[in-house]
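name: query_chain
kind: protein
chains: 1
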Amino acid sequence: MRDYRIFDAHLHVIDPRFPLVPNGGYLPDPFTAEDYLERAGSIGVIGGAVVSGSFQAFDTSYLLDALKVLGPSFVGVAQLPVSVPDEEVLKLHEAGVRAVRFNLQRGGSETLENLERLAKRVYEISGWHAELYADSSRLVELEGTLARLPKVSIDHLGLSGAGFRALLGLAERGARVKATGFGRLDFEPKTAMREISAANPDALMFGTDLPSTRARRPFRNEDVQAVVEALGEDLARKALYDNAIAFYRPDKNYNR
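structure:
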């Protein structure tokens, strides 16, 4: 497999030194920042986004520690309550956080009722975007809200084929879509990636989803090649690196 430059747009760090909250009785196994660096080194990742999971709720202590370990080519995605002070958002931004996550699939984040309010506020304060973990079947009901957000991304190709047309419409209007979690999908990802990229070449952002907690199958190195096979060399380079850098770190361009 050819060596590609990769910005991993979706990874998790699970460090038991920091607070963890059972979700539906489930607690993931440890997967520290050091574990991630060892695993991701096999595919040449040179940057990425650490995403807070349901089991981390509103804790950001683990995230700040992980960003220190991973280094300046990595950014963070936090789950925050709508009551978060402006000063805390600015502090997190200084530490490398660049987005707020709304986990509508498994919980642990702020509620749907406060999504628009919080997403707009953190954008005004620090230019952050909003990330949604939601089944695509919900995107029709959310379409009006999402259209009013200045910047938004959708996790895991929308998870199901039920709302794929709505996801495609959002991509056409500028939403980003994470080509992640292939082991979570109820459809074949290659065709979906081709359609999204055709609708908006800047939309797709590849991520490993490591350590793939609760996925039917975990990330495999071959998933990188699946992106190349689906999109071809030029569009794959955008999905594997360029699009995510432009979205998360428009001020940076990390080179080997």
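note: The two ends are 18 Å apart (CA to CA).
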